[in-house]
Specification:
The complex is a heterotrimer of chains A (345), B (433) and C (344).
Chain A: E1 2-9, H1 16-30, E2 34-41, H2 50-59, E3 67-72, E4 83-89, H3 96-99, H4 108-128, E5 131-134, H5 137-147, E6 152-153, E7 173-175, H6 185-194, E8 201-204, H7 210-223, E9 229-232, H8 238-246, E10 250-252, H9 263-270, E11 274-278, E12 294-297, H10 301-313, H11 315-331, H12 336-343
Parallel strand pairs in A: 1-2, 1-3, 3-4, 4-5, 5-6, 7-8, 7-10, 8-9, 10-11, 11-12
Helix pairs in contact in A: 6-7, 6-10, 9-11
Chain B: E1 2-7, H1 14-28, E2 32-37, E3 55-57, H2 61-70, E4 73-78, H3 82-94, E5 97-101, H4 107-114, H5 118-137, H6 143-150, H7 157-161, E6 164-169, H8 175-181, E7 186-188, E8 213-218, H9 227-235, H10 238-243, E9 244-249, H11 254-267, E10 270-275, H12 279-288, E11 291-294, H13 305-312, E12 316-320, H14 323-326, E13 334-336, H15 341-354, H16 357-373, H17 376-409, H18 416-423
Parallel strand pairs in B: 1-2, 1-4, 2-3, 4-5, 5-6, 6-7, 8-9, 8-11, 9-10, 11-12, 12-13
Helix pairs in contact in B: 1-17, 3-4, 9-11, 9-15, 13-16
Chain C: E1 2-9, H1 16-30, E2 34-41, H2 49-57, E3 66-69, E4 82-86, H3 108-126, E5 130-133, H4 136-146, E6 151-152, E7 171-175, H5 184-191, E8 199-203, H6 210-221, E9 228-231, H7 237-246, E10 249-251, H8 262-269, E11 274-277, H9 283-286, E12 293-296, H10 300-312, H11 314-330, H12 335-342
Parallel strand pairs in C: 1-2, 1-3, 3-4, 4-5, 5-6, 7-8, 7-10, 8-9, 10-11, 11-12
Helix pairs in contact in C: 5-10, 8-11
Classes of the chains: A alpha/beta (345), B alpha/beta (433), C alpha/beta (344).
Chain lengths: 345, 433, 344
């Protein structure tokens, strides 16, 4: 089949969604299909420009395409008789972020009308889709609450599971992923300051901006303990990243209220590593069960310190948490061949 | 070009007569034309003008539908009479086309249509004129107050023009509403007319009746024709009372007849009311006259067939200086201001009496100009040109309609900033005519 | 600079323009620019054309420093610094209007669409800071239909340094899609009229099975199976380089193509002369008869004659091969030239 993946594009920006689309394409081809990605530029500033972007997508004509998989607003407005949504993002500024007052929609009546417009277009697209999946439970809940559609969660698989066989139980806790304030790597440093002397930490990943890197450095300086912490702040080559995971004692990922589980957690579970997170981290709580597959701490330095200490207190327990994490992950059967097949139903 | 012309066809219809002239020219220019007559059903079998081509009835749904689907364009002659244009309205609703707008005021047409489409009609009124205005439309008790109450603020021009892919109107006047409601090209073209009953040279006929001037008003004697003002103008001048013979030819209501006769008698004006006459008697009356009064207030027509005809007959016409009449060159008519109607009428008539050679020269100039301007060939060429223009603006208009429809589905509410965002990059689609 | 390369596309169909776009991206990135490719779908149906064109007007690439537009209607994307490298019009509304390829009636409605399209295309093109085309044929059409002047910027081949000359064997190669309009059958017909033992090697994929099968049959019928190799598949880049390195000459004789086609440029890089015909179109901008190849009448006899000459007069053949290479410089067919012009 000829499958077209349709995604929105912020020109010159490459992020998780783009990675996902690329891996989806690769796996569609592995499954025997022809697959291409259509990336549609989307400009949402000023908010009054959004209707033109919506109409643009709606006017596109697709020929020679058997099936469409659309990922984001407004890309999923594209017309096709066989359209499946794998919803990574609605335009949250018209939904939950609007309610939270964090929106670029203008205040008052004007903003309300734009919000309504987006909602109406969304309803139309959702109704005309063959199937709707979301990439996380949070996204699913939001879709149900605001648009009344009951979708199924389809978690994105790990892209290269063969790189995460696990390995020796190392002497450090690994914190991977992007570095910024929302990801809260600083909490780990603050926790380390109060934790047992055995605890070591490796924080590695690309900072969103030089400021984010500087902030983290500043926290490190403040808590001292440079001998127990290693910072590797850059975009890591895949092999390096995999090694960091495979050789760790446990893996920590504690963002503030994220929709999805996070690749860091999924890759850690694949490698049978125990997981550390916080109670307000969001989607990852689907994988981290306190006392079974890892630890769920309160988002403060004291609690974090305790949890980090426990990793090294009883290594058998830590390893078994890791095994449990892997078992839980595998029980979810989140693998690319199944994912592709589900999307093309 | 393969065209369908929707028009009244009966001999009583001036528009029909014009449409027949234009149709024959279109055929001469190489078009294939079929005519669909649009009168109300009880008039569909009346005698017709000679179109020189096939004429169908608008209520023959199957045939007309087949025709419309295979035509290059539809041309709709539209005027303010539901009795004459019922079929035009019906087909225009489903098949947009070129509208030849004969009256910019279409209140009567709309009213007639609204009798069987009340709900739609109210929606149309609200859409164009707002709720408050819309509520008033059906509230008038008589014809005069209806016209007065609607002509300025609810002329219904937009109702028809918004269905048009292009509009030909016959004077500049009233164009604003047309331009505001028709998304396609709009042109002004002089109304084609002929005057077959005219005796050729105006120069021969100058056997004045011992210095008397024969003044004529043609058509239905309603207040719009300012007959009372003419009578007053004559009545206030001893010279005019002596030397002007004023004749009315056309349908007249008994109470109008009574009041006008009484007024004339009271003022000592020589008034002859002939009532409705047949065509040959009408021709004779026009030929015998010297001056024709075409003054109007309010002006409701986009063009005046009777004024054009009078000029083609080589007659002096007295017109109100507004609307279509304002377009007539100064050398071809006598123009008066409504605000000073009676006084100016008086002085114009007096000056004609004082220099009767002006009757000849004005008449000749008028005839010359009218014969060159109001030709069916000109008009037919304009029709073909605008149809081409329409074909070039149609693709972009269709695309815009598609987007508007989508926005409506999404419950879009008017927002000027959003509209600016949508339109500012679309100017390259404008066809600069 | 941040540069967006914009083109319309048909999903799953690999038109030649995709090569230009993707090769250009590599090159620009090598020179330190940030490049984003913007491919947007477009279907040429008269009924749907204008709404798609309007959609292109709403594409916002303001964050790019400049945009380069290729296939229609990408040239309608607005930008303060728009460069156009025009590949072709929507030909059914232009030069193919009076041809069986139009696909819709020549009536008032469609003429209206055509006229409106010409006007809008012109307006969109005139917004550009510079307009380039891929051939004189296309430049002429832009001038004729839209009254727009343009500069010819010939599309180079990717990594041309791969091509080399390693000698001249007895084979004339034709490396291109095996399709009726590419006219491999003409070469086969020609071979039967040759006097020398010159050989043919035809390589390339086909959209359908009919043409290659007919070709194969004809080769048998004419008793030429020992002199013609027909490899009906997409050959690898390495195979192509090898074939061109050793061949006698390259043949490329499509029917009336706009642009000169990569095969002729590849052969030139390999210092081999090109055999083509007078009705091949854009190739004639590259090939000059007797200089860097032969241009013959599109008849088997005339082609056979040229093939024999290539075989017999090796000195001339080699000299023409060297001229072919020089001709590339003459016409500025190089990536450095492309970059210089696009980034001016």
């Amino acid at each position: 089949m000829k499958v077209l993946i349709v995604n929105s594009m912020a020109p010159f920006v490459w992020g998780g969604a783009e990675e996902l689309a690329a891996h989806l394409q690769k796996n569609l081809v592995i499954a025997g299909h022809e697959a291409e990605i259509l990336r549609i530029p989307f400009q949402w500033e000023p908010a009054e420009r959004i209707p033109s972007q919506m109409l643009m997508v709606r006017a596109f004509e697709l020929w020679n395409v058997d099936h469409v998989i659309a990922l984001k607003f407004p890309a999923y407005l594209i017309r096709h008789p066989k359209k499946t949504l794998w919803l990574l993002h609605q335009y949250r500024q018209a939904y939950d972020l609007y309610d939270a007052g964090q929106t670029n929609l203008p205040p008052g009546q004007e903003g309300l009308e734009l919000k309504y417009l987006i909602r109406q277009a969304d309803q139309e697209s959702f109704a005309e889709s063959r199937n709707i999946f979301t990439n996380s439970e949070v996204t699913r809940q939001r879709l149900l609450k605001y648009n009344g559609f009951d979708a199924a969660v389809l978690l994105p698989p790990v892209n290269d599971p063969e790189l995460f066989p696990g390995g020796d139980h190392g002497d450090y806790i690994f914190a991977g992923g992007r570095v910024n304030g929302m990801k809260r790597q600083h909490l780990l440093l603050e926790g380390l300051a109060k934790a047992d002397a055995r605890v070591k930490l490796l924080i590695a990943g690309p900072p969103d901006s030089p400021d984010d890197a500087a902030c983290l450095q500043a926290v490190l300086e403040r808590v001292g303990l440079a001998d127990r912490v290693r910072l590797d702040l850059r975009f890591l080559p895949r092999q390096v990243y995999a090694e960091y995971v495979n050789r760790s004692a446990a893996v920590a990922y504690l963002p503030y209220d994220e929709d999805s589980m996070g690749y860091v957690a999924m890759e850690a579970a694949t490698a049978a590593k125990a997981l550390i997170t916080t109670a307000d981290s969001g989607g990852i709580l689907g994988l981290v069960k306190n006392g079974e597959t890892g630890w769920v701490a309160q988002p403060n330095a004291e609690d974090m310190a305790v949890v980090m200490g426990e990793v090294f207190e009883n290594s058998a327990r830590t390893k078994s948490y890791g095994q449990n994490a892997r078992a839980l992950w595998e029980s979810m059967k989140i693998k690319w061949p199944e994912t592709v097949e589900t999307l093309l139903r | 070009m393969n065209l369908i012309v929707f028009t009244p066809a009966g001999v009583r219809s001036a528009i029909g007569r014009m449409a027949a002239l234009v149709t024959r020219e279109l055929v001469a220019l190489g078009c294939q034309v079929t005519v669909v007559r649009t009168e109300a059903q009880h008039l569909l079998s009346t005698d017709m003008h000679d179109f020189g081509t096939t004429v169908l009835a608008w209520d023959d749904e199957a045939s007309v539908l087949a025709l419309v689907r295979s035509a290059d364009a539809c041309v709709y002659q539209i005027g303010d009479s539901f009795e004459f244009h019922e079929g035009g309205v019906r087909w225009l609703a489903d098949f947009p086309g070129l509208v030849c707008l004969h009256d910019f005021f279409l209140g009567h047409l709309f009213y007639g249509w609204a009798q069987t489409h009340r709900v739609q009609a109210e929606s149309v009124l609200q859409n164009w004129y707002g709720k408050e205005m819309a509520e008033r439309f059906f509230s008038f008790s008589d014809s005069e107050s209806f016209i007065e109450g609607t002509r300025e603020f609810m002329p219904m021009t937009e109702w028809i023009c918004s269905r048009a892919e292009g509009v030909i109107t016959h004077s500049q006047w009233g164009c604003d509403r047309v331009l505001n409601s028709c998304s396609g090209p709009v042109r002004v073209a002089p109304l084609p007319y002929d005057a077959p009953g005219a005796i050729n040279s105006p120069f021969d006929r100058r056997s004045t009746d011992g210095g008397t001037l024969k003044l004529l008003t043609i058509g239905h004697a309603n207040p719009n024709k300012r007959i009372a003002s003419v009578i007053q103008a004559i009545g206030l001048s001893p010279l005019l009372r002596q030397r002007i013979k004023y004749r009315l030819v056309g349908a007249i209501e008994p109470d109008a007849m009574e009041s006008l006769s009484a007024l004339a008698a009271h003022l000592g004006v020589n008034l002859l009311i002939s009532g409705e006459v047949d065509d040959s008697e009408l021709n004779r009356a026009v030929n015998e006259s010297d001056v024709i009064s075409c003054i109007r207030w309010p002006v409701l027509e986009a063009a005046s067939a009777s004024a054009i005809e009078a000029m083609l007959y080589g007659k002096v016409v007295i017109v109100t200086d507004t609307g279509f009449y304002a377009d007539i060159p100064e050398s071809c008519a006598i123009k008066i201001n409504h605000s000073n109607e009676i006084v100016e009428l008086q002085s114009s008539l007096i000056s004609l009496l004082e220099d009767q050679s002006r009757v000849v020269s004005l008449g000749a100039a008028a005839q010359n100009w009218a014969a060159k301007t109001f030709t069916a060939k000109n008009y037919a060429e304009q029709v073909m040109e605008i149809i081409l223009d329409v074909s070039r603006s149609a693709p972009a208009i269709k695309a815009i309609n598609y987007f508007c429809q989508t926005l409506r589905q999404w419950s879009y509410r008017d927002n000027p900033v959003v509209m600016a965002e949508l339109t500012h990059q679309l100017h390259i689609f404008e066809q600069n005519n | 600079m941040k540069i967006a390369l914009c083109s319309s596309l048909v999903p799953f169909i690999n038109g030649g323009y995709r090569n230009i776009v993707e090769w250009l991206k590599s090159l620009l990135e090598e020179h330190g620019h940030q490049v984003e490719i913007v491919y947007l779908p477009e279907v040429d149906s008269p009924e749907l054309l204008f709404q798609q064109m309007m959609a292109f007007r709403w594409v916002d690439l303001e964050m790019a420093d400049r945009i380069i537009c290729f296939r229609p209607e990408a040239h309608l994307i607005p930008h303060r610094h728009k460069i156009i490298w025009f590949i072709h019009h929507i030909r059914a509304f232009y030069d193919l209007w009076d041809s069986p390829y139009r696909g819709f009636p020549d009536d008032l409605k469609h003429r209206g669409i055509r006229d409106a399209l010409h006007r809008v295309d012109g307006a969109g093109l005139r917004e550009a800071k510079a307009i380039f085309t891929n051939s004189r044929v296309v430049s002429d059409r832009l001038k004729r239909f839209n009254q727009i002047d343009s500069e010819i910027l010939y599309p180079p081949v990717f990594q041309s340094e791969r091509f080399r000359c390693a000698g001249f064997n007895d084979e004339i190669v034709c490396i291109s899609r095996v399709e009726h309009h590419k006219r491999q059958h003409l070469l086969v017909e020609a071979l039967q009229h040759t006097q020398t033992p010159v050989r043919l090697r035809l390589s390339g994929a086909s959209a359908g099975a009919d043409y290659p099968r007919d070709l194969s049959q004809r080769i048998s019928e004419l008793g030429l199976t020992d002199r013609v190799s027909l490899d009906n598949r997409w050959i690898s880049e390495e195979e192509k380089v090898a074939q061109l390195a050793h061949c006698l000459a390259a043949a490329y004789l499509p029917l009336d193509e706009d642009s000169y086609g990569y095969p002729s440029v590849e052969a030139s890089h390999a210092s081999k002369p090109i055999l083509t015909t007078s009705d091949s179109g854009g190739v004639l901008e590259l090939v000059q008869d007797g200089m860097n190849g032969y241009i013959t009448e599109p008849s088997p006899e005339a082609l056979a004659d040229a093939m024999d000459r290539l075989y017999l007069d090796r000195t001339k053949t080699e000299a023409m091969g060297i001229s072919a290479r020089d001709r590339l410089a003459e016409l500025n067919i190089s990536w450095s030239h492309v970059l210089q012009r696009l980034l001016a």
